[in-house]
Amino acid sequence: xxxxxxxxxxxxxxxxxxxxxxxxxxxxxxxxxxxxxxxxxxxxxxxxxxxxxxxxxxxxxxxxxxxxxxxxxxxxxxxxxxxxxxxxxxxxxxxxxxxxxxxxxxxxxxxxxxxxxxxxxxxxxxxxxxxxxxxxxxxxxxxxxxxxxxxxxxxxxxxxxxxxxxxxxxxxxxxxxxxxxxxxxxxxxxxxxxxxxxxxxxxxxxxxxxxxxxxxxxxxxxxxxxxxxxxxxxxxxxxxxxxxxxxxxxxxxxxxxxxxxxxxxxxxxxxxxxxxxxxxxxxxxx
Length: 286
Hints:
With 286 residues, the chain is of the alpha+beta class. The chain has helices at residues 68-77, 103-118, 125-133, 139-144, 178-183, 212-218, 220-229, 251-259, 277-283, and strands spanning 3-21, 27-47, 53-55, 86-92, 148-152, 156-159, 166-171, 235-237, 244-248, 266-273. Strands 1, 2, 3, 4, 5, 6, 7, 8, 9 and 10 form a ten-stranded mixed β-sheet that branches.
């Protein structure tokens, strides 16, 4: 096989609690990750005549040295014990950058998993997750490919099975600086720890996104979008935003709300899935 196209799915933080702050300044989190059946696609083309790792086309406003796709591919190539075929990676980008959907982390994980497969490196899932963590805290959950309750900075994962409901995901017209949110004085950093739950058991008000109040105060576009979507049921920020989501029991219910969204807001409708579409693709019969 010389060409392979693999999905790079979005994730949602179904809740995000900040339970403390470490001496190194990083925040201790508890969150529930679930994948969506929507995301980017990466196409890998092996190039025996041209060694090295390259993009078919650079991403706008992302220097190659900062691009997680190239960084992941080079990191993986350094693990090889024999010369590797070159590879060109083409990106079909659907996920908004800086939206809280994990697009860059997902891209990095798809590179690690996909090239480990294509290059026949035989690295274990644990080793790939370890490499992924060096690229970003959210990369390991995409490498492992299972919905999970996450702790620490997001790297300690326990598989979970939240309901595979449908979601309306909206991207308000603003970009959010994650560092700014986590440095805000008003950010809640002492939410009591909870024990793992397989889903939202009991009182749903116990679960929230601790970044949401700060983001709503700083970004009126997010606040307005949350107020609009909350008319139809609970709506929440994912990660530090800017994307927000509402949960619905059926695709038709989600699409009715989607069709009535305010102008100027982009987004999509997708189903939550507990196995990553990346892993589903790699394990389906040839």
